[in-house]
User: What shape does this take?
Amino acid sequence: MASPESTPQTSNFITQLIDEHNRTGRYEGRVHTRFPPEPNGYLHIGHAKSICLNFGIAADYRGLCNLRFDDTNPAKEDVEYVDSIKEDIRWLGFDWEEREFYASDYFETLYEYALKLVRDGKAFVCELTAEQIREHRGTLTEPGRNSPFRDRAVEENLDLFERMRAGEFPDGRYTLRAKIDMGSPNLNMRDPVMYRILRAHHHRTGDAWCIYPTYDWAHGQSDSIEGITHSICTLEFEDHRPLYDWFVENLGIHHPRQIEFARLNVTYMIMSKRKLLRLVQENIVDGWDDPRMPTISGLRRRGYTPESIRDFADRVGVAKKESTIDIALLEHCVREDLNARALRVMAVLDPVKVVLTNFPEGQVEMMEAVNNPEDPTAGMRQVPFTRELYIEREDFMEDPPGKFFRLAPGREVRLRYAYIIKCEEVVKDNAGNIVELRCSYDPQTRSGMPEANRKVKGTLHWVSASESVEAEVRLYDRLFLREDPDETDNGEDFLANLNPDSLQILRARVEPSLVDALPGTLYQFERKGYFTVDSRYGRPGTPVFNRTVSLRDTWARMSTKS
Ligand code: ATP
Ligand code: MG
Assistant: This one.
């Protein structure tokens, strides 16, 4: 199985092309895809889209999907990234079985392939510098100029290329280039570079190589070696497809079909690994898995579930044209999933004390609370109720406006799963801050009792002052202030759009059932949103909670309006 209970991809231009190939027998009915990350950063939500697409299509067609690390650029790559990528794909629910491959495993084969092109007079060793190659390339409106080394004899090319590999020349001295067409309207076809000399330590091949293949030279041939049938990539590679085709055709090897789709963009998020790396390196965030990051590990730490991310990827679909998805859709997907699964509990994020003057001192009364109204199997739990309680500071107003149905002097509210209380007196400190609300409770109104039906307009969540535990709660806002974080004034860079208030840390009080909450457990704090235990800072006994998302669903509201 390549994919968990995946919903079949709805028909789109990719599945239509696969269906056509299956009809015409182009790949004997085989469907074999791959996910090819470059291990130079952690995966983000855009990669999640690509993972769901590649593994999803393989599952739908009873095919296979490989994991292939595209590790052709040793300077920026690292095993830390390899490990995180594997963890994230597994967590999303996909399995590449034993098919874990590395482009670097093919360096020898790629070299053999290159020798073949040299022998066939289809590749040559060039002495132009990177700068000169650029000058010779021409522009979209002007053709390029042939390299003066283009017509070097085959024997000489072979000799030089072998010596390039043997390490006889300094970095940058020569390149190997395909001999295609400097007059092509497609710049990628203008004698593209296949190899450069580069002495860099590779995280897998060590110092075995001092020539490294370019992306274009490595990618299609790696697909071909693995017997990939459908090589799905993002739109910026559309202009590379003629080159992809040229290489496999001129080598006479298995010919996968490259298919391009529009990359995923999400409002308020950046997807460039280079920029995400800057946020990490400059300590703007707390690592790649900071809960504000668009990375899979960040979303996981934030409390997102694999199901919600897969659902999001399905709903986004595949397009041929770039667009930007509203982040509210992603939040909607996680709310829907958490609504069905999260345990309801009570936590007071900004506590103010309530003293019930007519409730016996020292008495602890256990109240029955529903764990999840959406899930009858989730059962009930007991929540301790005492003379001193905490409620949310914002749930009280001394001088309330017309539509405020929460607590105010002389007013009544229901405490969830407990009694109706009435505010009798407001106690302040010398500075005028409210420090205590003295209230009475009506013993006839205990939740679930026959007389409990007396109606009041507001119901508040609460915790016992003595029985609750202190917990740190982290509320997150968007990391960037603009929908498009790359849109800046006066040429500033994207960091100018950072939201200075994207993290708020609170000392909250939570009901005692949460004292040993474990990372990965999903909660709804009643009226406050969905939360999970932070996997880095939370400790048994002193939990730290991340808010995954608030309860207010702007997406649902937008879609019912239209
Ligand atoms: P960057 O441009 O930031 O370096 P990348 O796209 O080059 O990122 P890769 O590791 O090469 O990162 O990506 C692996 C796969 O994920 C590729 O097939 C790529 O097309 C796909 N992918 C990357 N970003 C997105 C995105 N935003 N939406 C959909 N697919 C994506
Ligand atoms: Mg890439």
Remarks:
- Residues 94 and 498 are 34 Å apart (CA to CA).
